[in-house]
């Protein structure tokens, strides 16, 4: 018998999907399906039904798989993570089956733009402050750019032009590799160590940047049709644990609204800013996905961001999305029981 509730399917995505699945399932307004390529995914047990996705699989075959599942299960909305740009390109095929598509951006090109930070910086240069940056492809150019930026700003760093979770990011220093290593500081690397690693190597496109020493801000934002509905600005405090505080900075909110409009954001996304030596926030990146810190933003604001994302696509009244800044939170490890017998 068909469910009297709309069926929402969360496809393969990163760990914070647990938070989103729980909110939607526990609202009592939706029947929730969840899938992943691994039976170990933490969020599968939070859905009303969990199952595994096929892998490896080509894009067109994956789309066909989704279309079949939508018809089999009467799915009325897909919250897509895997192949999000593909889904955005084929929105009409899903909508023809009566299925809403919930992905971070309605524009398929926005995903590639957010991933390619060198191109992203060029597109938004002059409209939003960004760190002074050079794109390089070999060690000689990387060192020259770093020395130049270090002379002007006091410190330089580098990272791959494409990447997530800060993988490959390092701050260059004159020495002290052993001290940094033994002290657990894996973000610093000496010029000498970098030369040993990179010389005579064909590097991917790398970005060399001024190091930004000030406060870091992460904005978990919800948009619909390019319009910013709400955004939680959290400042990373540090201290004992991952302490963060909600702040209200109108300029950051204005820039986030610009990003939502230009990138045609249509769901949850994340923007990262960090202050330079003068205290001016500069845009580091935009993630066309919900961030790992989404549960923190929900706790800081009291807003059920995962549920609001789904509600917005079903035309539900969202209510008052404002909140008072100042709340401080930290996160702790959670143990989650995994379901058995998935197929």
UniProtKB/TrEMBL annotation:
Keywords: ATP-binding, Ligase, Nucleotide-binding. InterPro entries: ATP-dep_AA_Ligase, ATP-grasp_fam, CPAse_ATP-bd. Residues 283-290 form the Carbamoyl phosphate synthase ATP-binding domain. Pfam families: ATPgrasp_Ter. Coiled coil: none annotated. This is ATP-grasp domain-containing protein. It comes from Deinococcus rubellus.
């Amino acid at each position: 018998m068909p469910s009297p509730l709309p069926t929402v399917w969360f496809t393969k995505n990163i760990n914070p999907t647990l938070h989103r699945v729980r909110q939607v399932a526990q609202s009592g307004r939706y029947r929730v399906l969840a899938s992943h390529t691994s039976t170990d995914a933490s969020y599968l047990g939070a859905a009303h039904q969990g199952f595994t996705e096929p892998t490896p699989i080509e894009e067109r075959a994956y789309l066909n798989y989704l279309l079949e599942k939508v018809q089999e299960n009467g799915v009325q909305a897909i919250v897509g993570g895997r192949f999000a740009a593909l889904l955005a390109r084929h929105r009409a095929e899903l909508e023809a089956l009566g299925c809403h598509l919930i992905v971070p951006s309605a524009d398929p090109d926005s995903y590639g733009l957010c991933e390619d930070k060198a191109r992203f910086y060029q597109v938004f240069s002059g409209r939003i402050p960004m760190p002074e940056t050079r794109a390089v492809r070999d060690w000689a150019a990387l060192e020259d750019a770093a020395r130049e930026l270090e002379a002007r700003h006091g410190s330089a760093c580098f990272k791959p032009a494409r990447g997530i979770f800060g993988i490959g990011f390092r701050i260059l220093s004159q020495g002290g590799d052993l001290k940094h290593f033994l002290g657990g500081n894996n973000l610093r690397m000496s010029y000498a160590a970098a030369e040993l690693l990179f010389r005579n190597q064909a590097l991917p496109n790398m970005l060399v940047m001024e190091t930004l020493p000030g406060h870091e801000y992460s904005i978990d934002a919800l948009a619909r049709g390019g319009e910013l509905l709400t955004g939680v600005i959290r400042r990373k405090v540090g201290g004992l644990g991952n302490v963060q505080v909600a702040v209200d900075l109108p300029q950051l909110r204005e820039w986030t609204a610009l990003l939502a409009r230009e990138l045609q954001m249509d769901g949850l996304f994340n923007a990262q800013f960090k202050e330079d030596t003068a205290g001016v926030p500069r845009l580091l990146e935009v993630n066309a996905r919900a961030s790992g810190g989404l549960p923190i933003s929900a706790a800081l604001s009291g807003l059920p961001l995962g549920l609001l994302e789904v509600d917005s696509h079903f035309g539900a009244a969202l209510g008052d999305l404002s909140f008072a800044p100042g709340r401080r939170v930290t996160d702790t490890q959670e143990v989650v029981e995994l379901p058995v017998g998935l197929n």
